[in-house]
Specification:
Elements lengths: L1 E4 L8 H9 L1 H7 L6 E3 L11 E6 L5 H10 L3 E6 L16 E4 L12 E3 L20 E8 L3 H9 L6 E6 L10 H8 L2 E6 L9 H8 L3 E5 L4 H5 L6 E3 L3 H11 L2 H29 L3
Parallel strand pairs: 1-2, 1-3, 3-4, 4-5, 5-6, 7-8, 7-9, 9-10, 10-11
């Protein structure tokens, strides 16, 4: 089995380079049950060998895939991005199986498509600090768009200590380095997780889980109960609910420790389940 990372090729873009730099640890973790060798060029494989190709913004690479799929037939696609579901569904028919991020109902009954979490950005993640010994009660690190994120900060501003770092755009000025970002995350008890710009998922959720935080997440239309079934994370509708939840858990050592442990166990079990599903689909 060969693997070719293509997000940074044929269409230079912020997201293509982002995924090439920041998504590898997550995707390679999910593929850890698969034996593969990464190749730097398609010249290192042939049309008969099974190949995993990892890509984003595939709708902008029409000419590449038109030629590529004429020659190569034994292909598995890991499709990153596509938050708004822009891909033509017929495109997926040319692959043995597709693993795509950003779960959408329109793909949920397609046997040729498996939805996977968008995951976390690569970084020096540390979870050694026990939840009750962490410095910050809550954090918010990222962009402010929409009333919800303003309300998140306003409703919980009096819970100290907390850490807020606001950037004007994703990956823009004032963004923390991966090392700085995960240092804050790994020293925070509760990560407040608003829904994303187009889609309920955000990288922030999975980065919080990897860092051992307790996520408090907005759950529009019960999305996270559908996509991440039986998860023990705290779901809220209004950010004023978070204030009471944080204070109550901070005053009950046993409860916060048990909740933290149950969330981490669920997350580790869920990742194992995804790895198992991927291995079943890539049956080589």
């Amino acid at each position: 089995m060969k693997l070719f990372w293509n997000s940074q090729n044929y269409n230079k873009s912020f997201w293509g380079e982002y995924h090439h730099k920041n998504s590898k640890n997550w995707i390679f973790d999910l593929l850890s049950k698969i034996k593969f060798s990464e190749i730097k060029s398609l010249n290192e494989t042939n049309e008969l060998e099974p190949l995993i190709i990892i890509d984003s913004e595939v709708q902008k690479k029409v000419n590449f895939y038109k030629d590529f799929l004429k020659k190569y037939k034994n292909i598995y696609l890991v499709h990153l991005g596509d938050e708004g579901g822009k891909i033509d569904k017929s495109f997926y028919l040319s692959f043995k199986h597709v693993f795509r991020t950003f779960y959408l109902n329109s793909f949920s009954k397609n046997n040729n498509v498996t939805s996977i979490p968008i995951g976390y950005k690569t970084g020096p993640i540390n979870t050694d600090t026990e939840i009750i010994n962490r410095k910050y009660n809550w954090n918010f690190l990222g962009t402010i768009h929409g009333a919800s994120r303003h309300d998140l900060i306003y409703q919980n501003r009096n819970i100290e200590p907390h850490y807020v770092n606001i950037t004007k755009k994703f990956g823009g000025q004032n963004s923390l380095s991966a090392s700085e970002y995960y240092k804050i995350m790994s020293d925070t008890k509760f990560a407040l997780i608003p829904h994303g710009y187009y889609h309920p998922e955000t990288y922030r959720l999975y980065e919080a889980l990897e860092s051992g935080c307790i996520p408090l997440i907005e759950n529009p239309h019960n999305f996270f109960d559908t996509f991440l079934p039986k998860n023990p994370m705290i779901k809220i509708k209004l950010w004023k609910e978070a204030n009471k939840i944080i204070n109550e858990l901070n005053n009950d050592k046993t409860k916060i420790l048990n909740l933290s442990a149950s969330i981490q166990k669920w997350w580790n079990d869920h990742k194992s389940l995804i790895r198992k599903k991927i291995k079943e689909k890539i049956n080589v």
